[in-house]
Amino acid sequence: MAKHVVAALAEIPPGSQKLVHVEGRAIAVFNVNGELFGISDACPHQGGSLASGATVGMTTSGEPGTFCHSRPGEFVRCPWHSWEFDLRTGQSWCDPRRFRTRPYELSVEPGSSVRGPYKAETFGVTVEERYIVVEL
């Protein structure tokens, strides 16, 4: 599988998200307390942008009147119809048997600036006495 640089880590600090495009695919990247998740940006329900959705946690209840909030920020809520998806698996919490969004593996790798295929022509310049000289 080919690897693609999509952003510098500093561009997506904890608690934020960013929409990136790789080979024609829109991918929503989320940073949850320093852990990175990537999922397909289009909600499988009706195509809302998940990168624009709010991140939320899970609330469960074992009995009436008792609630437990866990996994803060690990779910994204579609901004169109509030369908929720697990950022770890892409699993839908509204209709888990029929809907999910594709998760993508992300990694953080060391490196320097990505170099493009273009190279600008450069010229050496010096100042001699009071004249500017360009080397060709």
Structural account:
It is a single chain. The chain has 136 residues and is an all-beta fold. Helices cover 0% and strands 40% of the residues. The protein has no helices and 9 strands. The strands form 3 sheets. The protein has a 4-stranded antiparallel β-sheet with strand order 1-2-3-7, with no helix packed on it. A 3-stranded antiparallel β-sheet has the order 4-5-6, with no helix packed on it. A hairpin with a 6-residue loop joins strand 5 and strand 6 (84-86). The two termini are 44 Å apart.
Could you write a compact summary of the structure shown?
The protein has 136 residues and is mostly beta strands. Helix content is 0%, strand content 40%.
Overview features:
136 residues, mainly beta, four-stranded antiparallel β-sheet, three-stranded antiparallel β-sheet, 9 strands, elongated, disordered C terminus
